[in-house]
């Protein structure tokens, strides 16, 4: 019983949409048919002032990036320093710098998520509401 290509493709699409459900929320912003929106800190501050429901979640999510950036810098310098101390290898130090930045970003993000308790709120919904608000402000039709 050979299946047609369309039924296999349809089942694969359904399987992937179940696994990557969060892409549906962002689909109209990442579909590639429209030019990406650009915004500044003043746009974010205006949204935070205008939306009392989603503003705290967006503000907390933006605060967590400070934790992540600090963790990234700390991890990069620390791991690169250790690599240089023990190996004196420039390429090993460069790889350690990159790996330390990624690991530090991850740990900083997790620490920030727990500090600001982002696991309790819907930050993705707040980001989508911000992008929708930005579209309406700039007059872009989706």
Query: How far do the termini sit from each other?
Result: 43 Å
Largest sheet: none
Strand content: under 5%
Low-pLDDT runs of 5+ residues are none
* Amount of helix: over 70%
- The number of helices is 6
pLDDT averaged residue by residue? 86
Whole-angstrom Rg: 21 Å
SSE string, helix = H, strand = E?
Answer: HHHHHH
Q: Got a strand count?
A: 0
Short characterization:
This protein is mainly alpha-helical.
What does this structure look like?
- The chain has 142 residues and is an all-alpha fold.
- The chain has helices at residues 5-19, 22-30, 41-50, 55-87, 90-115, 123-138.
- The model has no long low-confidence stretch (mean pLDDT 86).
- The protein is extended, with a radius of gyration of 21 Å.
- It has six helices and no strands.
- α3 (41-50) packs antiparallel against α4 (55-87), α4 (55-87) packs antiparallel against α5 and α4 (55-87) packs across α6.
Keyphrases for this structure?
142 residues, mainly alpha, 0% strand
Describe the protein's topology:
Layout: H1 5-19, H2 22-30, H3 41-50, H4 55-87, H5 90-115, H6 123-138
Helix pairs in contact: 2-6, 3-4, 4-5, 4-6
Protein name: Succinate dehydrogenase subunit 6, mitochondrial-like
């Amino acid at each position: 019983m050979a299946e047609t290509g369309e039924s296999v493709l349809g089942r694969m699409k359904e399987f992937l949409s179940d696994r990557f459900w969060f892409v549906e929320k962002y689909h109209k912003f990442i579909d590639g048919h429209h030019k990406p929106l650009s915004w500044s800190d003043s746009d974010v501050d205006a949204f935070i002032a205008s939306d009392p429901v989603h503003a705290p979640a967006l503000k907390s999510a933006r605060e967590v990036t400070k934790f992540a950036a600090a963790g990234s810098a700390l991890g990069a310098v620390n791991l690169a320093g250790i690599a240089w101390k023990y190996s004196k290898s420039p390429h090993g130090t460069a790889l350690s710098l990159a790996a330390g930045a990624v690991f530090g970003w991850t740990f900083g993000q997790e620490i920030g998520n727990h500090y600001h308790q982002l696991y309790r709120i819907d930050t993705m919904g707040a980001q989508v509401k911000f992008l929708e608000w930005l579209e309406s402000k700039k007059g872009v039709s989706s």
